[in-house]
Amino acid sequence: MQLGWGPEEEAFRSELVAFLDEYAPPEALVVRDFADDDAAGDGATGMAIPDWARKWQATLFDHGWMIPAYPPELGGRNCTPIQTLVYLEEMARRSIPRSLHFPGYAIVAPSLLEFGTPAQQALAPAAIRGDAVWCIGMSEPNAGSDLAGLQTRAAVHDDHFVVNGQKVWTSYAAVAQKCFCYVRTDPDAPKHRGISLLILDMETPGIEIRPLRHITGAANFAEVFFTDVTVPRDNLVGALDDGWRLTQGSLAHERAGLWVESVTRLEHTVGSLIALAQRRGVDRDPVVRRRLAETYERAASLRALGYKGFASYAQGSAAPEHSYMKMATSELGKACFELGMELQGAYGAVVDTERGEEQGRWAHGFFVSFASTIAGGSAEIQRNIIAQRVLGLPRS
Amino acid sequence: MRAHIDDPAAADPLWEHLRGYAALGGGPLTDLHLFLEEIGYVAAPGPFLPTAALFAPLLQAIDDDLTPAVLDGDVTGTVALAGSDGVWTPNDDPVKTFVAEADRVDWVAVVSSEPAVTLVASPPVRRVATIDPSRRLFEVDTHGIESSATVALDGDVVDALVERATVALAAEMVGTARRLFDMTLAYAKERIQFDAPIGSFQAIQHKLADMALELERATSAVQYAAMAIDADDAERHRATHVAKAAAGAAATRAAKDGIQIHGGIGYTWEHDLHLFIRRAYGAEHWFGTRGEHLDRLADRVL
Description:
With 396 residues, chain A is of the alpha+beta class.
């Protein structure tokens, strides 16, 4: 018995590695604590997606390495699930991002391909290649965890909709050309039933974007206000009032492997923590040693859990394991950054570029990590989902 | 199980059944560990784990003539190694501790510091009472033991044996944790308070979600460790510590939160819950606690 991939998978990996060695730009090789670390601007200018990242995403697409499970015309090479996992594994190991804006390739394109009209499906390649930047209009001031409570209203007319309302925490809104926007089309229906999904052109009159400066001081999301925004009827995705079902859409081909990136990032963080403890001379402290070992143990067992879930998925079974991964990796990441601060004593709170450790990486990372247990379904909502969908407990 | 608390012979019919699976002790850990999960799920008493996960691999390693009989389930055995500190490393202490089923197995394999192994039948033993009556643990006094044959061991053999047994125990613990979790989940669905199943309350749902996560990651960590050991992979040492530490976290959390969710009924002797809580905590303290394994893991990663 041997632990590892077989010769076919390793041959596939070599092909990928050869491509990466030849084409990956130096900026893509910089190890980041978070996926979109450098896709952030300041509060005044909003965010920008760096030029190298746009070119890199297009290069990946053109060579069939953007979404390997897709066919070449969608930036892939018809890979099997196992090849996709090897791909995600290798990209994560080298800490190479595919894109610095995830909504287009990870959420919009798969949903368009599954639910869109032929004209809407035609938007998918540009979304995957990154030629068009998308934002997703989901959260609202009064619809966070209770997403189905969204109130942005779209009045239904014969050949168009008129949208009024507000979205918030809209990532990439300031740089997006299009918005995948969930709106209420039937205010009288039960809240999950009256929602529809529209494609909005961000240039449409009546859309106002206010960059929202977040806790770290950067601004990579925004508030978006809609005032009498006219949207053609053709921009309705799926059936009218059937939008809630579409909120579940994401990259099904990769769902079983997306944990690889977060677990690899965690392992990298744990390694950095150990190096930090050694530099600070606290690595002989028994309490520190045990706590570092605990982060290692948690990351290692989560990797095992991810592979176990993948094995079920690859054999065609449901893989409830993956429900646990987001909650577990985000909470562990947060704990790692806090420990990194703690190991530095008085310097733990220092973010001075010329003092303390790693230009304040640990304190900065800790603050950024707050988002990881809130965004995309808070850790509490994840627990509800596990309890109700995996464990079969009744809803309250 | 309850009868076994007062009379260990009550578990003999179970062994008559389990002996047919003793051969698993001579095969890959990836097979044995699945079986041991079920042993832990029912908190089975008796000599299965010491025979299949300790005695059989030790005999195999020294190519002892008894090996086929052990793998056929005709002969039972246990291993005496830990000294007065209860740690499973070779030592000179004349009294060996935490030896499972030492009074009822056919052979006790005493491992001394050289290291070397001596097979002894019926050595003087003393039962040490623990919280877990389903696993009977003994001190074995090796003073004046007469033996015809002592076989020298390679130090690596002892390390590998203890590593294997540690992962085997972790597999058992995952089974016990799953039992505690299943009992608790079922109870949360049926117990009505405030006119609703208590499992519909978020406080209970979140506890169960956390228990489930600990259980799932421990299950996976143990499976991975078993694979690493079977493959003789360089990761096997770290994976062993991760597995036992994760199994400890899962089992003790399932025990604590399990009884908390059961409430008063879980606190009774009559309810079976405590039998599994006892098994969980007993196992947590055998072959190294979570804390001890984290410390040894630290020695390997720092």
